[in-house]
């Protein structure tokens, strides 16, 4: 099931994509405009959505909706650094003994098709194509073996990074959290639809140039490792987004540097999920906030 958050007739709704249609959550799906509430409902919500899909009702054309990030404002938006061996090699760093997590502030989140802003304060804006997963159950102290059970589904993340701001602090937070620098989407593919999240082709293009070409099986710490590690420290909750790191091919390591420029488009494709595409523009003078 491909779960989506979108606008239709001026309202924010959630639903599911079926071919060229969107099934609008309605009826006994009480949380029709809130993905986090829907995920919190667990199997009850999924069963109700499947029943609605099977009914053939409440459908509109995909052309008549605007997709937003599947989760508009995640409670936590965490990323992991240095999680692909070739990316570690291109950075010249050592393989980490433990997962290295950082926080992206949730105001950075945008959806498929929305514009990434190159901010006025820096031209060193980089892309990072990544697999992300979304937590579906409130949990703590989850074992690696149990981790699959708490993941609601998978989506695509562009962990856009302002490189000079990233290096100003060891936490990386500011360089990872500029408004519009957290594209997610185009939808959330439920976990049961992905047979193995650790064997998916991942490709990133800037315009027509292929920059990243990898497989999620190359991750050092896989999705289940991350859930187990994080849940030792904190309670994970429905709607929390965890992005799993980027492979080699980032712009900062190109010669000359391959930083993003206004007029370009970043397109990330992950097997079994789809394509996340975002144009790059100069930050508008009147821009006053994120999602």
Helix share of residues? Answer: 10-25%
Mean pLDDT: 94
What number of domains?
A: 2
Look at the structure and give the CATH class of the largest domain: Alpha Beta
Query: What form results from the Cα inertia axes?
Result: globular
Encode the helix/strand succession as letters.
EEEHHEEEHEEEEEEEHHEEEHEEE
**Content-based structural category:** alpha+beta
Low-confidence stretches: none
Under CATH, the homologous superfamily of the largest domain reads Fumarylacetoacetase-like, C-terminal domain
CATH architectural type of the largest domain: Alpha-Beta Complex
Number of helices: 6
Number of strands: 19
Radius of gyration based on Cα positions: 18 Å
Distance between the termini: 25 Å
Tell me about the biggest sheet? 12 strands, mixed
SSE inventory with pairings:
Blueprint lengths: L1 E7 L2 E8 L2 E4 L10 H6 L2 H13 L3 E3 L4 E2 L9 E5 L3 H7 L8 E4 L5 E2 L5 E3 L6 E2 L2 E7 L15 E8 L2 E2 H4 L6 H4 L5 E9 L10 E6 L2 E7 L7 H11 L7 E3 L21 E6 L3 E9 L9
Parallel strand pairs: 6-17, 8-14, 9-19
Antiparallel strand pairs: 1-2, 1-5, 1-14, 2-3, 3-4, 6-7, 10-13, 11-12, 11-17, 12-14, 15-16, 15-18, 18-19
Question: What does this protein structure show overall?
Answer:
The protein has 291 residues and is of the alpha+beta class. It has two domains: 2-67, Fumarylacetoacetase, N-terminal domain (SH3 type barrels), CATH 2.30.30; 77-282, Fumarylacetoacetase-like, C-terminal domain (Fumarylacetoacetate hydrolase, domain 2), CATH 3.90.850. The protein has helices at 35-40, 43-55, 85-91, 163-166, 173-176, 223-233, and strands spanning 2-8, 11-18, 21-24, 59-61, 66-67, 77-81, 100-103, 109-110, 116-118, 125-126, 129-135, 151-158, 161-162, 182-190, 201-206, 209-215, 241-243, 265-270, 274-282. Strands 1, 2, 3, 4, 5, 6, 7, 8, 11, 12, 14 and 17 form a twelve-stranded mixed beta sheet that branches. A five-stranded mixed beta sheet has the order 9-19-18-15-16, with no helix packed on it. A two-stranded antiparallel ribbon has the order 10-13. It starts with a strand and ends in a 9-residue tail after the last strand. The relative contact order is 0.20.
């Amino acid at each position: 099931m491909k779960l989506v958050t979108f606008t239709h007739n001026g309202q924010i709704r959630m639903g599911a994509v079926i071919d060229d249609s969107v099934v609008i959550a309605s009826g006994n799906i009480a949380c029709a405009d809130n993905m986090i509430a829907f995920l919190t409902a667990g199997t009850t919500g999924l069963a109700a959505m499947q029943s609605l899909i099977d009914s053939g009702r409440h459908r509109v054309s995909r052309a008549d909706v605007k997709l937003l990030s599947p989760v508009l404002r995640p409670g936590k938006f965490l990323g992991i650094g240095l999680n692909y061996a070739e990316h570690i090699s291109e950075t010249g760093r050592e393989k980490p003994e433990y997962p290295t997590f950082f926080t992206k502030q949730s105001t950075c989140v945008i959806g498929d098709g929305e514009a990434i802003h190159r901010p006025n304060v820096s031209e060193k804006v980089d892309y990072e194509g990544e697999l992300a997963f979304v937590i579906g159950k409130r949990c703590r102290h989850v074992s690696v073996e149990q981790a699959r059970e708490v993941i609601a589904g998978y989506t695509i993340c562009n962990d856009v990074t302002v490189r000079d701001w990233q290096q100003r602090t060891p936490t990386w937070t500011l360089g990872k959290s500029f408004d519009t620098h957290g594209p997610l989407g185009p939808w959330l593919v439920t976990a049961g639809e992905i047979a193995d999240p650790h064997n998916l082709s991942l490709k990133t293009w800037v315009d027509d140039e292929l920059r990243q070409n990898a497989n999620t099986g190359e991750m050092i710490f896989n999705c289940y490792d991350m859930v187990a590690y994080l849940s030792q420290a904190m309670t994970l909750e429905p709607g929390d987004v965890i992005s799993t790191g980027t492979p080699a091919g980032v712009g900062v390591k190109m010669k000359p540097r391959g930083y993003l420029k206004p007029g370009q488009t970043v397109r990330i494709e992950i097997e079994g999920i789809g394509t996340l595409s975002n144009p790059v523009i100069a930050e508008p003078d009147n821009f006053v906030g994120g999602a």
